[in-house]
Amino acid sequence: MKIKLFDHLILTAGAVFLMTPVALAVMSSTHSAADIHMNALSILPGGHGVETYTKVLTQKGGFTGEVTGARMVLNSLALGVGFALGKITLSMMAAYALVYFRFRFATFLFWMIFTTLLLPLEVRIMPSYQVMSQLHLLNTYTGLIVPLLASATGTFYFRQFFKSVPDELLEAARIDGAGPVKFFIDILVPLSRTMMAAIFIIMFVYGWNQYLWPILMTTDERFFTLMRGIKSILQVWVGSQIPDYNEAFALAVLAMVPPVLVVVVFQRMFIKGLTESDK
Amino acid sequence: MNRQTAPTSPRGIARLFRWGRGAEAPAAKRVQFDRPVTPWLFVLPQIAVVVIFFYWPSAQAVQSSFYIEDPFGFGATFVGFDNYRDTLKATEYRTIAGFTAFFAGIVTALSLSLGLLLAVKADKVIRSASAYKTLLISVYAIAPPVAALIGMMLFDLHIGPFTHFAALFGYDLRVGIDYWDTAFAMILIAVWKQIPYNFIFFLSGLQSVPVSVREAALIDARSGWRRFWDVTLPLLAPTTFFLLIINVTYALFDTFGIIDVIVKDKPANNPMTLVYKVYLDGFKGNDIGGSSAQSVILMVLVAVLTVAQFRYLERRVHYG
């Protein structure tokens, strides 16, 4: 074999380009603000990690007034998990109806659901806000989570998956006298476990990383997610003499560790879910 | 040839459009349940969410775009297409539209080509490919605003390594103040964030190429470059096509977090995309009619773009 030095060189360059910013953020979060201000960012660990993270996680008003970092972590978790579970439930049920039933308006409903794929939330920012305000859902967990479920990605994945399930299963189930609900709960749901896990991971990361929606929905700091907190830091930032670089980095690290961990640990499943949705 | 099993959801969507034209029967099972009520119970929750949180706001956007709202809350006046005319006539809007096109083009081109380059190289050095995969996928999981926060530290006027580096060459890099410096930071951060996604898809596309095809290619085309152009790239066409749409969508919409962290609600002399303008006008400028008109323009743009891309490109892409 030829020596693949050149290939490795490109890959290493790519890895350095992608990882250096992350390493700098993690390492700098363990230095003091003054240290960063004087000596720039650091690629080596410093000695102030514990106090910075304790402060960010527990101290109220460190950044935003009345919310602690721990609270924001919990809110992000609620958004990620709530969104993923909601998405799986709604989309599995809808996909089941669309694939396994013959009924009037099925085609119409199908288009109604899948049209949502065409228009992302970002193009209807203002009216979405108005609707939420009319429904009195601003600053609630419902308002934070449920509207995000209005897109068809999950339904799309499950529809593709159900179509790949052999028809014989349904035939056998019917011979055994199983009705639609029994078939769904006893056969289809257990069969979809891997698919559900993959979608859970993808949707958790998606929910955790939401930025625009929490910004629109929450003005009450008790409902702030980490992403929402990041926006607040930047607003406090303006005009301070020595900005709390270390705390900003700590918050960034807190915001990126859970999704990164989930994705790395469940890497196989994640990639499979992401790339092989159509069978 | 073996069926390529990699990123295939574009095929699903393409099929959707073919089906829409009546070319393919809907996703039917050979056996289906025949119940009048049960399917409705299953589909209703999703329909309810979609109607309340998708169709209602979308309809409201269309409606508000024809009105001017009284700033003190005393009702609204019907103004026909005035909001659209004012929006499209404004020089600022046109500048932003121009920048958006430029931004989307360059971000898509750079992150696609760099993702492909890394994937092709990783595919060659199979033994360490999974290590690179792990490394890159961790970057994928980082949210755009977090990426931007870190990025802005690197471009910080006092502590930013990039600023120091540029200063070595006598260049005064002023991100947040100078228009093109800021645009440069935006593009770099957006590309950085998107490379891993493209890498994952390209790599799994490459790894699903059957061994027999690889070996045949190895015999037919000795030069690696030729092999890439004549064999690898055509085989990756469905993946590339899918990623093209995803990347354009990403650059137009998902970069909101990046732009917001960089611009910080202060348009001043900063570059921004059309989506960010919708947000600024609606929330900071309180111009609901104008913001809605911009929303509708974007909706039409996105819908046309998606449909046109699928219809046009579908015919030219070879699905193995």
Can you describe what's shown?
The complex is a heterodimer of chains A (279) and B (320). Chain A is mainly α and 279 residues long. Chain A has helices at 5-28, 33-39, 49-58, 69-100, 106-114, 125-134, 141-145, 153-164, 167-175, 180-191, 193-208, 212-217, 226-237, 245-265, 267-275. In chain A, helix 3 crosses helix 14 (245-265) and helix 4 (69-100) crosses helix 11 (193-208). The longest helix of chain A is centred in the first third of the chain and has 32 residues, at 69-100. The two termini of chain A are 36 Å apart. With 320 residues, chain B is mainly α. Chain B has one domain: MetI-like fold, CATH 1.10.3720. Chain B contains 14 helices and 2 strands, in the order H-H-E-E-H-H-H-H-H-H-H-H-H-H-H-H. In chain B, strands 1-2 form a two-stranded antiparallel ribbon. In chain B, a hairpin with a 6-residue loop joins strand 1 (67-69) and strand 2. Chain B is globular, with a radius of gyration of 24 Å. The model of chain B is unreliable at 1-13 and 15-26 (pLDDT under 50).
Secondary structure tally: strands of chain A: 0
Strand runs of chain B, count: 2
Number of separate helices of chain B: 14
Which oligomerization state do the chains in this entry correspond to?
heterodimer
Biggest chain-to-chain interface with counts: A-B, 107 and 104 residues
Basic shape of chain A: globular
How many strands, which pairing sense, and closed or not: the largest β-sheet of chain A? none
SS-derived structural category of chain B: mainly alpha
Distance between the termini of chain B: 7 Å
In short, what is this structure?
The complex is a heterodimer of chains A (279) and B (320). With 279 residues, chain A is an all-alpha fold. Chain A has 15 helices and no strands.
Features of this protein?
heterodimer, A: 279 residues, mainly alpha, MetI-like fold, B: 320 residues, 14 helices, 2 strands, 72% helix
